[in-house]
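REQUEST FORM: STRUCTURE PREDICTION
Request ID: SP-0412
Submitted by: Lab K.M.
Chain count: 1
Length (residues): 323
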Amino acid sequence: MSVKRIGVLTSGGDAPGMNPCVRAVVRTALYHGIECYGIRRGWNGLITGDIIKLDEKSVSHTINRGGTILYTARSKEFMTEEGQRKAVSTCKFLGLDSIIAIGGDGTFRGARALSKYGINVIGIPGTIDNDISCTNYCIGFDTAANTAIECIDKLRDTMQSHERCSVVEVMGRNAGYLAMYVGLAVGATAVLVPEEEIDFERDVIEKIRQARFNGFTHYMIVVAEGAGSANDIAAKIKEAIDLDPRVTVLGHIQRGGVPTGRDRVNATKMGYMAVELLLAGKTNRIVCTHEGGFTDVDMDEGLDMKKGIQQMEVDVLAAMTGI
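STATUS: Completed
RESULT:
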């Protein structure tokens, strides 16, 4: 197929590394003599025509910037057939034959809907939750994890001084990959994730007791927001064993900051690959990482895939408790 004009957008929650990815899409497209346009504010921008032409200068010095220069938003209108038809009309009016969408599951469902109208689409996974099942890695995860780890390390210093229990809530409404990774990295006493059924006595209280038997007087509980409120967890701990936990909700600080080297490089490779897939005549694909390399999968198949917390991570966490 002939590719003349590519539109690129970021949608859903922002993730560090989105800017390097946009940069890679733009520069790869220009390298091949293809015009590239930035669609601002996600799918809503495609409906309203909030679109700007991008060139080398537009993306200069963005590889080290967090957030997204294209802004992001969620669009209820795009979920409707009328909204999708408006987006298609914009594509036809401006001559956009291909769309590269950077985001999560909802972003890809939007891209899939657009493909049914004959628009070529490629999805790139960008979400700090790392919850896209068809890929081992999503843009933004490494930066978010390192931000959370740095915050918890600082928190631990003061909590140890006062011999307190800390309950730290990290992002992960429907997925606990970030919480599990961070919990292992900081040596948490317990990690609570939505994928694992929680026995509060076994998974929290007994682990605190075991840590105390081993001589520790500070206890770190990491909880994914989807596994329960940190405030509720703290209240249950106080009721059960009369500790007075301190709650920290890291919140949107995890989304911000300068992307790590890993996020910059992966985002750059994924952006490059997305353009190359279009040039190879492929559409309705998701760029993925698999076994240390980069590949692509059919968007329908990718959205139907499921993944859970790795059993090894659960086993390692159990072995580390109280040590």
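NOTES: The first helix runs from residue 18 to 31.
Reviewed by: T.R.
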